[in-house]
Design brief:
The chain has 16 helices and 18 strands. The protein has about 400 residues and is α/β, with parallel strands linked by helices. It has one domain: Alpha-Beta Barrel (TIM Barrel). The strands form five sheets. Strands 1-18-17-16-15-12-11-4 form an eight-stranded parallel beta sheet. A four-stranded antiparallel beta sheet has the order 7-8-9-10, with no helix packed on it. β16, α13 and β17 form a beta-alpha-beta unit. α7 crosses α10 and α15 packs across α16.
């Protein structure tokens, strides 16, 4: 099987020839740039320019030699736009490692902080001294003197201005050209990151507490906000898939609906505010292109999975096995015929950063044996490989997957 065939076999809920593998196909299955630099050195690979494609989470663009080393089967569409040297600027990671960062997202130093500003000059995110990632510090609709419309507010939102490169989104021809070039260069499956967040966009704009109050106390206003937001998302989806739809295999939406101890909202509230709108967007994506729909959704969301499946979802990431009621065996038994699990292969809260290499291997073998039978499973760690993860644990994780595949 080619890698693309392997991924599509998994999505058809059939056993592939070996375990399908993901590393950095999207910004929740990636690796922190600090950890990636250490990994390359540990593997004895030649020195290469370290490119931080996600400035907020400081994730590294994983090079082809590492993808090959770990048998990775699916890649991010964004790789098709990462070759232009003029798009990168010099920067330094918090540990002093030199790197390149997208020129359009270059932060500025303010005292002992790194700061991101919106196009109006407002500080919208910062990384204080000693931190490893950027935090949102401005919520447009929580500001009495801030933007009043959704489009204006999105321009003042960290995730929408720094998390999404402006070039490909405004230039459909360039977007299509990069997608076609990537498709011709690889037999791996390609994932196109879209977004389309609903609950999270409300939180990004109003702030979490304010948006919870809006949903509970002012449902008419909440519905109006979400209707207007969905209209924006659908217009962007038409442009996005109109340009790249024929070159990608999976389109990724996002909405973190869970917490460590369960969903952020009740199933009843999900059904009222979000399920119909998710269903509308996901159905439209499948009308526009021959794609599978994946939702990035952190946390304990077992109670919401039946409704997500009914809304048309094909796959979920991550499978946050350390959360309440997210036991991998129970999830596989209850939802494995209808849901593809993209992740859940290694716990990233405790085992990957703090376990021994042998503990990592043992844990990975167990997770793979639970989640892989019958297809419907793409291996990746639960979430990003963070800066403090030892490189030997990363190697142990992927070696365990290869060993498990070879014994099946």
């Amino acid at each position: 099987m080619t890698s693309r065939e392997r991924i599509l076999t998994v999505y058809s809920h059939r056993d592939p020839d070996r375990i399908a593998v993901d590393l950095s196909a999207h910004p929740s299955s990636g690796i922190a740039a600090i950890a990636y630099a250490k990994l390359r050195k540990h593997l004895g690979l030649p020195q290469k320019t370290l490119r931080v494609y996600d400035p907020i989470q400081q994730l590294a663009l994983v090079d082809e030699d590492v993808l090959e080393r770990f048998g990775v089967d699916i890649v991010d569409l964004g790789r098709g736009f990462a070759l232009d040297e003029e798009s990168w600027a010099d920067w330094v990671l918090p540990d002093g490692t030199a790197c390149k960062i997208p020129r359009w997202a270059l932060p500025e130093k303010v005292d002992d902080r790194w700061v991101f500003r919106s196009r109006t000059g407002r500080e919208i995110a910062h990384m204080p001294k000693g931190a490893l990632y950027f935090d949102q510090i401005y919520y447009p609709f929580a500001d009495e003197n801030g933007p009043r419309t959704i489009p204006e507010a999105l321009q003042e939102s960290m995730w929408h201005t720094i998390g999404c490169p402006p070039g490909p989104w405004v230039d459909a021809a360039r977007l299509r050209e990069g997608a076609e070039r990537l498709r011709q260069s690889t037999d791996r499956a390609i994932l196109g990151g879209f977004g389309g967040n609903l609950l999270e966009t409300g939180q990004f704009l109003y702030r979490n507490d304010n948006f919870y109050v809006l949903l509970a106390a002012e449902p008419k206003k909440a519905h109006k906000f979400l209707d207007d937001l969905v209209e924006i998302h659908l217009n962007n989806l038409e442009r996005f898939l109109g340009a790249v739809g024929e070159f990608i295999d999976v389109v990724r939406f996002g909405d973190d609906l869970g917490m460590q101890n369960g969903p952020q909202i009740s199933p009843k509230m999900y059904r009222e505010f979000f399920k119909p709108r998710h269903k509308l967007m996901w159905a439209r994506a499948k009308e526009l292109a021959n794609v599978k729909v994946m939702l990035h959704c952190c946390g304990g969301v077992r109670e919401l999975l039946p409704d997500l499946i009914e809304a048309g979802l094909d796959a979920i990431n991550p499978v946050q096995i350390s959360c309440a009621r997210m036991d991998a065996g129970e999830l596989k038994a209850e939802f494995g015929k209808d849901m593809v699990f993209c992740g859940g292969g290694c716990d990233t809260q405790e085992i990957l950063p703090y376990g021994t290499a042998e503990e990592v291997r043992r844990h990975v073998r167990q997770q793979v044996s639970i989640l892989s039978p019958g297809g419907g499973f793409i291996f990746s760690q639960v979430h990003n490989i963070l800066a403090n993860v030892p490189p030997e644990n990363v190697v142990a994780m992927y070696e365990a997957v290869a060993e498990t595949s070879s014994t099946e």
